[in-house]
Amino acid sequence: MNFKKDCEVINPKNLVNPHLAGDSLFEKRSGRGILLLHGLTATTNSVRPIASLLGELEWTISAPLLPGHGENLEKLATTTWRDWAEKVEHCWRELNQYCDETFIAGESAGGLLALWLACLQTIRPKGVVLVAPALQLNLPDWKRQLIWLLSFFKSTFPKEKKSVDLQWQGYSEHSLKAVLQLIDLQDLVLEIIPQLEQNILVVEGGQDDVIGPGVSSLLQKKAKRSEVKSIFFEKAGHHPMLEKTSQDYVLSEIVNFLQKVD
C-alpha cells in the first residue's frame, strides 16, 4: 500500500518508527466519507491501511492527528480528552460539509472518541467501526489507583516492546496523565452508550493484552437501540489492522460492513 509521504512534518522525539507517515490526512473524493481515529500515543499510521482501501473505492478520508500526538510526550501530558474530542468534532463537521453519507471508525482510544461522537453529535454517523476499542482496559482497579498515585511523582512509564515486524508508529512510553484522561473519557462513554442508535462493527483480538475481553458483549448489553456485529480474531493482538496475521481479513470485513450499511 502506498501512503502519502508526509511523515517529515512530525518531530520524531520519543517515536517508534519515525520514518512512517503519521500526520493528519484529508483526501476529498466522493460524497461518501469516513472519519478515522487513531489510538492513544499512536499516529494516523494506525488507520492508514483502511484509509488506503477506502480511498481506492473513492471514499473521502479524514484522519486527524490528535492533539499531543506525533510530537513528544511532554506535549501529550498537557492535553486532555476534551482537546482530543474538540479536534474530532471539528473534523467531523468539516467532513460533513463535503459528504452526504458519513461514517466513523476508531482504534483503541480512537474507538472511545468514535462512540462519544456517535452519541452526542446532531449529525450522527451512518455506521461505526470499533477496532480494539478502549471501552474497558485490561486494568484492575488497584492498577488504576496506582497510576493516579504515580502521576504525582512520574510523568511516564515504559511500554512493552512491540514486534519489530509491526509497522506501528507512536510514543515508546505511556504518559501517566494521558492514561488518566483516557480513563475519564472511558467512564463518560460508558454512561452515554445507551444513546447509540447506529449499526456498529466491533473487532476484537484474542491476544490483545490492552483491552479487556467482552467489549462487544458489553456494547450489546448497553447499546440496545444499536445493531452490534462482532468479529473475533483469535490470533490478533491490539493492532489487528496492522498485524500480518489479521490485517487482510480484518480490513476486508471492515470494508464489507461499511459498504452494506443501509
How many individual β-strands? 11
- With strands numbered from the N-terminus, the spatial order across the biggest sheet is 2-4-3-5-6-10-11
CATH superfamily, by name, is: Alpha/Beta hydrolase fold, catalytic domain
Q: Quick one: overall form?
A: globular
Name its key features.
262 residues; Rossmann fold; seven-stranded mixed sheet; two-stranded antiparallel sheet; 8 helices; disordered N terminus
Structure overview:
It is a single chain. This protein has about 260 residues and is an alpha/beta fold. The protein has one domain: Alpha/Beta hydrolase fold, catalytic domain (Rossmann fold), CATH 3.40.50. About 35% of the residues lie in helices and about 20% in strands. The protein is built from eight helices and eleven strands. The protein has helices at about 50-55, 75, 80-100, 110-120, 140-150, 175-190, 215-220, 245-260, and strands spanning about 15, 25, 30-35, 60-65, 100-105, 125-130, 155-160, 170, 175, 200-205, 225-235. The strands form three sheets. It has a seven-stranded mixed beta sheet, with helices on both faces. A two-stranded antiparallel sheet has the order 1-8. Helix 3 (about 80-100) packs across helix 4 (about 110-120), helix 4 runs parallel beside helix 6 (about 175-190) and helix 5 crosses helix 6 (about 175-190). The longest helix has 18 residues, at about 80-100.
Question: Could you write a compact summary of the structure shown?
Answer:
The protein is α/β, with parallel strands linked by helices and 262 residues long. It has one domain: Alpha/Beta hydrolase fold, catalytic domain (Rossmann fold, 3-Layer(aba) Sandwich), CATH 3.40.50.1820. It has helices at residues 48-56, 73-77, 81-98, 109-120, 141-150, 176-192, 215-222, 247-260, and strands at residues 15-16, 25-27, 32-37, 60-63, 101-107, 127-131, 156-158, 170-171, 173-175, 199-205, 227-233.
